[in-house]
Fold these 2 entries.
Entry 1:
Amino acid sequence: MNLSNKIQNSFKVKSHCTEIFKVHTVDSLVSKGKGGLFTSKTSIVGGGYNIIPRSFVDGLVVQSNLSTIETTEDDNSHVLVKVGSGVVWDDLVGFTVSKGYLGLENLSLIPGSVGAAPVQNIGAYGAEASTFIQTVHCYNLKTGIFSDLSKDECEFGYRTSHFKSKPELFICYVTFRLCKSNLSVKELINSTKYSKLEFLKDTFRLIRLSFKSITLKFSPRPKIKFSFSCIRDILTLCILPAKIKRKIVSVIRTKTLHNPDKIGNCGCFFKCPILPNAEFEDLRNQFPEIEWFEHDKQSVKISACWLMKNTNWAGKKANNVLTDTKRPVVLLNAGSATGEDVLHVMSQIQHDIKSKFNISLEAEVVVL
Ligand SMILES: Cc1cc2nc3c(=O)[nH]c(=O)nc-3n(C[C@H](O)[C@H](O)[C@H](O)COP(=O)(O)OP(=O)(O)OC[C@H]3O[C@@H](n4cnc5c(N)ncnc54)[C@H](O)[C@@H]3O)c2cc1C
């Protein structure tokens, strides 16, 4: 085993693999694959923010360093931007916002690479990457065939896509279709698409939502408290420029999320389970206080945090893994957890939730 082949991961578990291959050009990928080098023992990683690797991963690990950002089409209203899978996701968001291209601002500061964004269909504050993806350009590591997948072919869903069941597809580039708007507030009011009445409505909504987000506390000392509960609504307002939305999201994320540089974590470890309406009603009869969110007409999303709190998994430490007290769905490395420790705790949590609620809690993270 070559101990220099470390698999970088934000949970900070120690892990090595047989070989790491960094893809700097598509041609280098093709020549590396010649002679059937890519076998079932090949894994793909990006920045390692959503993976739990075991202590030793047997086989080749492929990682993208394709780092170009290119505007391929530009008309009056939209642009197509083709981006290398090795580009840091937040660098892309920063680039598009600075150019006045709208769409990705709610997804500011999500850690990781552009290549992983379609795989997980990353999302935050009511937005999902899939809304803005036009084409995913792939290379099949097993067959050596290139293909361009349309949005429909990507079969996007809640933190999932076609790529989840096709681990042999290496994403080389992603093309995003974004709205163009360099309009200032003055231009917004005069634009035909955005009437003066809409502008006024948005202004009043912004004022109302801002007041709803602020509470004044007078004891023991006067203090202003901000609540983030209206943030999704605020981010839908056209009156706010994308630059401001990006700033708001960045501030909230910095304040509320655990920084992996300080404590190992992968963000949300589990997905919120989705249940058909009928099953949900049965469950609600047994547990009337259950927390849930709307998903679509046929199903609801159950809060994974609520399930974990109600199986005593909030603020708990087991096998060097901690669960966050307020958001137990975030698992933290208490210091020296191994990949195997994390997997053990993961199955204990899944077992407890299955036993009490008969719900299968699916991991959002990818195990290597
Ligand atoms: C603090 C924190 C906050 C987070 N917040 C959010 C959030 O708000 N919303 C959200 O959706 N996620 C969030 N995440 C999860 C994570 O940021 C995303 O899943 C991100 O897309 C991971 O990117 P990555 O490059 O690190 O991918 P990795 O973790 O390395 O890989 C993830 C998956 O993508 C695949 N993959 C990576 N690159 C490629 C490629 N080029 N071709 C094919 N497959 C590839 C891997 O095989 C793996 O299956 C958070 C994580 C952390 C640590």
Note: The mean pLDDT is 91.
Entry 2:
Amino acid sequence: MSEKNENSWFSDLLLAWYADNGRQLPWRETKDPYKIWISEVVLQQTRVEQGLPYYLRFVERFPTVVDLAEASEDEVLKHWQGLGYYSRARNLHAAAKQISTDRQGNIPDTYEGLRAMKGVGDYTAADIAALAYGLPHAAIDGNGYRVLSRVFGIDTPIDSTRGKKEFAQLGAELVSQSKPGEFNQGLMDLGATVCTPKNPQCESCPLTDKCHAQQHNKWQELPVKEKKTKVHDRFFYYFHITLPDGRILVKQRKDKDIWIGLFDYPMVESQSALEQAELFSSKEFKQLKKRMKGLTVTGEGKSLKHQLSHQTLHTTLYYCQAEKAELKDNEQAVEVDEFNQLAIPRLIELLGGKK
Ligand code: SF4
């Protein structure tokens, strides 16, 4: 496809704006597909400002795909701690091992090859292909969908199959053939900093003269989403149990649920909020008490509401002591120092472990 077509104004304006206004980020200074891949995965569901320190720490500890492949899953999860969505870290690790074993550490250099890596979707494959190898693939994230739907006045739902196809086609028509990486990063930056969801800065936007939403005062209606994500409530009552020798009890999450492989405390879960009396007379608490000889609740810790993408966790921590514990397979009694080395969900960090 030639660089000039009827929509080339879009990439011309975007690239000129990006050259002056693009954010300076470490993964934009490199062509190393491994580092670009890590940045992509860190930034899924995470804002750049939040993700940057995690990215830096991660690539410092695991500077190459082989270093990542050789690390233990616990260590990878520990370095991911706080970013959430731990399946992303597990997929990264699995893909790194595969690349290390099957491809001598060489990351694929085609869109199709990248797309076949574990955990790599259309967006990530397109962005690595464009940034690392200069291949003309448009990578459209939530920011990109917002800009495109507003500029071109597209009201096809962005989360529908039809919408995804329509936006992918438009992206393929618009993407710069000579600077696809800059095009993708520019689209993301414009959406993140100018064409924001609630308060777009149309007066300082390079696309303002061409923008359908701006001309028809429709930015509030675009983009359109088909499904409203359902959020459901869960109620977690955690028990921070200390044994006479000072060790505390932790459990590793094994079930098919959030935070697989991470450590939290023994708990009771309920589908609705429980009064203290209800909690302490619940079947689950009684079962716990049966395994924890001489269990006494010594105090109530923090209560926090913790938001995940599809779940709201209402959590309370209770401090307890027990004389002796009968442990399940996934439970351990650990020293405080040991506890600090374990990979724990952000929620447990926020609830705190020490009284
Ligand atoms: S003119 Fe306004 S609505 Fe249109 S792309 Fe720019 S910031 Fe978004």
Note: Residues 139 and 184 are 6 Å apart (CA to CA).
